[in-house]
Amino acid sequence: MNPQAAELNKIILEKNPVIFDVLSERGKTIFFPKKGI
User: Fold this and answer.
1) Measured in Å, how far apart are the chain's first and last C-alpha atoms?
2) What are phi and psi for residue 16, nearest 5 degrees?
3) Which domain holds residue 35?
4) Residue 27 gets which letter from DSSP?
5) Domains: count for the chain
6) Cα-Cα-Cα-Cα dihedral of 35, 12, 1, 24, to 10°?
7) Rounded to whole angstroms, what are the CA distances from 33 to 2, 7, 8, 27, 36?
8) Structure pTM?
9) Is 23 exposed, middle or buried (0-12, 13-18, 19+ CB in 10 A)?
10) Do 7 and 35 contact (CB within 8 A), yes or no?
11) Could you state, in chain order, the average pLDDT of each consecutive group of 10 residues for the chain (37 residues)?
12) In Å, how far are 21, 26, 34 from 17, measured between CA atoms?
């Protein structure tokens, strides 16, 4: 998993665990590359 995706998952899990549980496995690996391509 991309480090940016892992970082976003951690934030989502801390802020709203219900939303994290709703995400599919694929959804947990998708991210917008905020640090560039």
Assistant:
1) 15
2) -155, 85
3) 1-37
4) H
5) 1
6) -130
7) 10, 12, 11, 14, 5
8) 0.73
9) middle
10) no
11) 90 95 90 72
12) 6, 17, 22
Please, what is the Cα angle at 2 between 5 and 16, to 5 degrees? 15
DSSP state of 32: -
Q: Which pairs count as long-range contacts for 29-37, CB under 8 Å and 24+ apart, including other chains? A: 29/1, 29/2, 29/5, 30/5, 31/2, 31/4, 31/5, 33/4, 34/4, 35/4
Q: How far is CA 7 from CA 13, 20, 23, in A?
A: 10, 13, 15
